[in-house]
């Protein structure tokens, strides 16, 4: 058992020191009926390192990895190239195997990184302050809605039809138990976002309006009129960013009037990983900070006056306030936040803008090429690196057929909105810097054949 | 004074640091590192890009006009920045990390290698299910192990962390009660030794929280619990093994009483590593329990996360489990989501996360589980408990062990600050341990013990490592009992001396801001 260092003589010496006759005797407090006297039946015994590698490699080989096929999936998870040094650095044991930085004198590495991460996120989102990360974008979005309820003391949230349907699902699940009232609808396949409807729905009970930017169809809504209408009714605007790379090209939500900005940071440094772990981003204005969920790192000084960092404002948190805490969260996505931060540091402002420009230019080229395919109509007038096509056929079987031919064509709206017949022909296509001109041509040619 | 394993003789106190100031502020291998905002530049990037096609903008008039304010570093500078920072962290790779209830054990690198196989790391959560059969099979295999090891009926894999798992369990309880027309049960009973997440979770799910006291020997007061049960009680949240390091002997009686009164039993499974492979919570009447994959199955903590908190359910709660989940259908693995849930899973309380949970953690946990097997996991809990009892008995002559007489401890040993010199606290002992080259134990938790020190050695520590740690803690405890003033200033040798946490909270500085030019500042 290669991970267990005690030898049998060690165990005997320790049992003698403890005064116990056997290891089993140490489990005396467990009721006899619930105590097994040997390994759990029905499970195999231990395997060598080589055997485990063989087993898991065989399972991995059953999946079609994104890098082995022309790949166009997005809708909340994006395939970007991650520089090699990101993964190298996050695998340093001092980061990988460190605990939550509760002993700041020997956790300055993690703490300074979090302080830098908070600053990067705040700058990117155009907000005063960000926290040290959340589980993912969808849970961060729900936490923002509950935060708006605490701030405004109102319980009605208006969710844009352009908000990721899984984010809506998470919010609906939670609202059933908390009593929040959520208003939302599915999108329609038009170039227009639902800004007017959102503005019309705001009233004196509204705690917040939640708008995804760019939205689930890839459209880029102008947040300014929505922010104005929300603020005129003393409600908050929550902006949701599922593709942070977009903010290298488009104006930040904070700049456009959002009070809380949440997002999914997976695009930078983290990788697809079949949906997790990801990194939730959460930022807001200074005046809301004491209602913000999650961990916060702050600057201070040590006994010699040297600058240092600590976790702070913990009086909001569950370990102090228990049932009165702002949320039950007692973790953050530390390692994914580190990956995000390193990738952002490598890019810098210049690199992020270049990356965003490259994504956008490739997406424009792809949209123009695909719009020429008979049976395809481009829905969007505005987009960043993701857009929606209206096919002449139902999109789900088309996606399956293309997958069989080795092309991962995009996300069919039928998968995301199973009950909505009007969306069944919608296909959301994401084009990042990893997509080549040949990939786009392959997709166009395959779609020509399948739609013919 | 003892000689440590490296043969180096540690000298406490001493050193005339003021006269040894260096030009850089560095001290040999201990390197100071500025903020990236102080060394980076908006004009520098550490990434080279392929040439892009030229195309007109379709951004709909939302182009960014102002600078973002993000400095960049070249690749060598970035690698140095983060490598230097990393050296200011303590980590399990550096030595024993005795955090009680947090469980810092060795993280096998095989798990990392497996999680990075492109077939797992480079697949999208919305790919057609026929292209991700291997990923679904990983989830299914891990689920099978978790259900079998716990003796439960089903498992929800999607919760993102332990506290998220608690929420999952509590929501299933609430959904089950509502399905029975008993939505009026609004009270969750929580023993006072519980993690703060337990009451926060119950409150977040719309319940009223009431405390249940602990007995003098550190366990749930069964009679007090029974007395409180009634038609308004939805259930109990109990931690077992508990945060005093003890097994709840009355667990079966607690479960029976709660069930008889129409409620459900939630077990906080944070400490499952103490009993994994030997005791099945299902045999104790538990209805729902989350499993922190990082604690029991060694996925890395990563400076706080990611966690992963699958929740196992009894048959009574299974119909209410969240979506999505994986189901084996013949030779194929299906992903059951909103659309496919159909009438079979109509009771599901819904979706908790955007995708399918922490896949990267599932791969690591499965790698760890397969490496150990059923026989190895039996040994894991045995060694974890033996190590904790060894620490307890080797130190109880020098540190007060409030529940030392309550039977063997499980995975962790609990001490208090009773008997330290006037004015000396658990904090001083903790900071003294830092100078000995250790991360301190969990401090001031559980709340039922004054000045608690909660020590969890885990099963991946050797006897030699334990003996050295015991020696170090004994030395620090003796100094705290003798009133050694040098201890009040500890740590002396860490990258930072004691940090001013009060100032950080009173005048929060939560981000870097560009220094204002002198002319502006004067306005």
Automatic annotation (TrEMBL), chain A:
Belongs to the GcvP family. N-terminal subunit subfamily. SUPFAM superfamilies: PLP-dependent transferases. Residues 1-445 form the Glycine cleavage system P-protein N-terminal domain. This is Probable glycine dehydrogenase (decarboxylating) subunit 1. GO terms for molecular function: glycine dehydrogenase (decarboxylating) activity. The glycine cleavage system is composed of four proteins: P, T, L and H. In this organism, the P 'protein' is a heterodimer of two subunits. Coiled coil: none annotated. InterPro entries: GcvPA, GDC-P_N, GDC_P, PyrdxlP-dep_Trfase, PyrdxlP-dep_Trfase_major, PyrdxlP-dep_Trfase_small. HAMAP family: GcvPA (MF_00712). It catalyses: N(6)-[(R)-lipoyl]-L-lysyl-[glycine-cleavage complex H protein] + glycine + H(+) = N(6)-[(R)-S(8)-aminomethyldihydrolipoyl]-L-lysyl-[glycine-cleavage complex H protein] + CO2.
TrEMBL record, chain B:
Pfam families: Aminotran_5 (PF00266), GcvP2_C (PF21478). Residues 185-302 form the Aminotransferase class V domain. Keywords: Oxidoreductase, Pyridoxal phosphate. It comes from the Bacteria. Residues 383-481 form the Glycine dehydrogenase C-terminal domain. It catalyses: N(6)-[(R)-lipoyl]-L-lysyl-[glycine-cleavage complex H protein] + glycine + H(+) = N(6)-[(R)-S(8)-aminomethyldihydrolipoyl]-L-lysyl-[glycine-cleavage complex H protein] + CO2. Residues 484-523 are annotated as: Disordered. It is an enzyme of class 1 (oxidoreductase). The keyword Oxidoreductase applies. The keyword Transcription regulation does not apply. InterPro entries: Aminotrans_V_dom (IPR000192), GDC-P_C (IPR049316), GDC_P (IPR020581), PyrdxlP-dep_Trfase (IPR015424), PyrdxlP-dep_Trfase_major (IPR015421), PyrdxlP-dep_Trfase_small (IPR015422). One of its GO terms (molecular function) is glycine dehydrogenase (decarboxylating) activity. Its EC number is 1.4.4.2. NCBIfam families: PRK04366.1. The glycine cleavage system catalyzes the degradation of glycine. The P protein binds the alpha-amino group of glycine through its pyridoxal phosphate cofactor; CO(2) is released and the remaining methylamine moiety is then transferred to the lipoamide cofactor of the H protein. This is glycine dehydrogenase (aminomethyl-transferring). It comes from Sphingomonas molluscorum. The lineage of its organism: Bacteria, Pseudomonadati, Pseudomonadota, Alphaproteobacteria, Sphingomonadales.
């Amino acid at each position: 058992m290669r991970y267990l260092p005690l030898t049998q003589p060690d165990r005997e010496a320790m049992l003698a020191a403890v005064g116990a006759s056997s290891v089993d005797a140490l489990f005396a407090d467990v009721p006899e009926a619930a105590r097994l006297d040997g390994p759990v039946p029905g499970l195999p015994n231990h395997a060598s390192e080589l055997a485990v590698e063989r087993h898991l490699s065989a399972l991995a080989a059953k999946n079609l990895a994104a890098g082995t096929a022309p790949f166009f999936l997005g809708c909340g998870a994006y395939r970007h190239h991650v520089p090699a040094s990101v993964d190298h650095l996050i695998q340093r044991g001092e980061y990988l195997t460190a605990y939550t930085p509760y002993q700041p004198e020997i956790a300055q590495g993690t703490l300074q990184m979090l302080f830098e991460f908070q600053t990067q996120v705040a700058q990117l989102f155009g907000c005063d302050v960000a926290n040290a990360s959340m589980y993912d974008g969808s849970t961060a979005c729900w936490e923002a809605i509950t935060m708006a309820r605490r701030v405004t003391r109102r319980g009605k949230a208006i969710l844009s039809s352009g908000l990721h349907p899984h984010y809506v699902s998470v919010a609906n699940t939670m609202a059933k138990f908390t009593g929040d009232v959520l208003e939302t609808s599915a999108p329609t396949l038009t170039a227009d976002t639902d800004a007017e409807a959102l503005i019309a729905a705001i009233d004196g009970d509204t705690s917040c309006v939640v708008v995804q930017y760019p939205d689930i169809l890839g459209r880029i809504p102008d947040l300014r009129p929505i922010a104005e209408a929300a603020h005129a009714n003393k409600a908050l605007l929550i902006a949701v960013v599922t593709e942070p790379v977009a903010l290298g090209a488009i104006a930040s939500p904070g700049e456009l009037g959002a009070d809380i900005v949440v997002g999914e940071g997976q695009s930078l440094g983290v990788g697809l990983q079949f949906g997790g772990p990801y990194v939730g981003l959460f930022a807001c204005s200074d005046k809301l900070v004491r209602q913000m969920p999650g961990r916060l790192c702050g600057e201070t000084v040590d006994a010699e006056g040297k600058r240092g960092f600590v976790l702070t404002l913990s009086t909001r948190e569950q370990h102090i306030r228990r049932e009165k805490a702002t949320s039950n969260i007692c973790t953050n996505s530390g390692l994914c936040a580190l990956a995000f931060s390193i990738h952002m540091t490598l890019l810098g402002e210049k690199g992020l803008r270049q990356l965003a420009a490259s994504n956008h230019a490739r997406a424009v080229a792809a949209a123009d090429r695909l719009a020429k395919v008979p049976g395809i109509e481009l829905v969007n007038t505005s987009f960043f690196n993701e857009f929606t096509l209206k096919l002449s056929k139902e999109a789900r079987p088309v996606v399956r057929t293309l997958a069989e031919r080795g092309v991962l064509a995009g996300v069919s709206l039928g998968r995301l909105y199973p009950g909505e017949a009007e969306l069944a022909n919608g296909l959301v296509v994401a084009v990042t810097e990893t997509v080549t001109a040949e990939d786009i041509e392959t997709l166009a040619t395959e779609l020509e054949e399948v739609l013919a | 004074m003892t000689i440590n394993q490296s043969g180096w003789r540690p000298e406490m106190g001493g050193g005339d640091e003021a006269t040894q100031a260096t030009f850089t502020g560095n001290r040999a291998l201990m390197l100071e590192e500025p903020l990236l905002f102080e060394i980076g530049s908006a004009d520098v990037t550490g990434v080279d890009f392929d040439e892009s096609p030229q195309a007109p903008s379709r951004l709909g008039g939302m182009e960014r006009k102002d600078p973002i304010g993000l400095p960049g570093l070249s690749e060598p500078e970035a690698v140095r920045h983060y490598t230097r920072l990393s050296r200011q962290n303590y980590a399990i790779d550096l030595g024993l990390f005795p955090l009680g209830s947090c469980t810092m054990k060795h993280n096998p690198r095989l798990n990392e290698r497996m999680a990075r196989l492109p077939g797992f790391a480079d697949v999208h959560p919305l790919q057609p299910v026929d292209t991700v059969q291997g990923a679904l099979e990983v989830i299914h295999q891990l689920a099978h192990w978790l259900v079998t090891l716990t003796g439960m009926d089903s498992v929800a894999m999607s919760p993102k962390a332990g506290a998220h798992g608690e929420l999952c369990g509590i929501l299933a309880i609430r959904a089950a009660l509502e399905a029975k027309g008993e939505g009026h049960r609004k009270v969750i009973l929580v023993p006072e030794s519980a993690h703060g997440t337990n009451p926060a979770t119950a409150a977040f799910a719309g319940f009223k929280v009431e405390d249940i006291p602990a007995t003098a020997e550190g366990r749930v007061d069964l009679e007090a619990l029974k007395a409180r049960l009634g038609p308004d009680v939805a259930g109990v949240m109990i931690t077992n093994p508990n945060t005093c390091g003890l097994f709840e002997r009355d667990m079966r009686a607690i479960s029976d009483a709660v069930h008889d009164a129409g409620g459900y039993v939630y077990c906080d499974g944070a400490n499952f590593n103490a009993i994994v492979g030997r005791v099945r919570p299902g045999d104790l009447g538990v209805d729902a329990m989350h499993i922190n994959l990082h604690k029991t199955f060694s996925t890395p903590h990563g400076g706080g996360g990611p966690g992963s908190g699958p929740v196992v359910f009894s048959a009574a709660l299974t119909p209410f489990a969240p979506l999505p989940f994986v189901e084996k259908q013949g030779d194929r693995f299906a992903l059951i989501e909103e659309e496919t849930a159909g009438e079979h899973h109509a009771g599901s309380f819904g979706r908790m996360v955007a995708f399918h949970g922490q896949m990267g953690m599932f791969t690591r946990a499965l790698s760890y589980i397969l490496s150990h097997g059923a026989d190895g996991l039996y040994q894991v809990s045995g060694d974890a408990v033996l190590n904790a009892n060894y620490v307890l008995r080797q130190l109880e002559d020098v540190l007060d062990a409030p529940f030392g007489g309550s039977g063997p401890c499980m995975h962790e040993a609990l001490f208090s600050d009773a008997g330290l010199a006037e004015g000396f606290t658990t904090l001083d002992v903790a900071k003294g341990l830092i100078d000995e080259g250790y991360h301190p134990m969990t401090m001031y938790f559980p709340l039922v013990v004054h000045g608690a020190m909660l020590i969890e050695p885990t099963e991946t520590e050797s006897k030699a490592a334990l003996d050295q740690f015991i020696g170090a803690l004994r030395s620090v405890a003796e100094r705290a009992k003798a009133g050694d003033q040098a201890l009040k200033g500890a740590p002396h040798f860490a990258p930072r001396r004691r940090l001013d946490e009060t100032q950080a909270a009173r005048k929060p500085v939560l981000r870097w801001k560009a220094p204002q030019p002198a002319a502006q500042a004067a306005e």
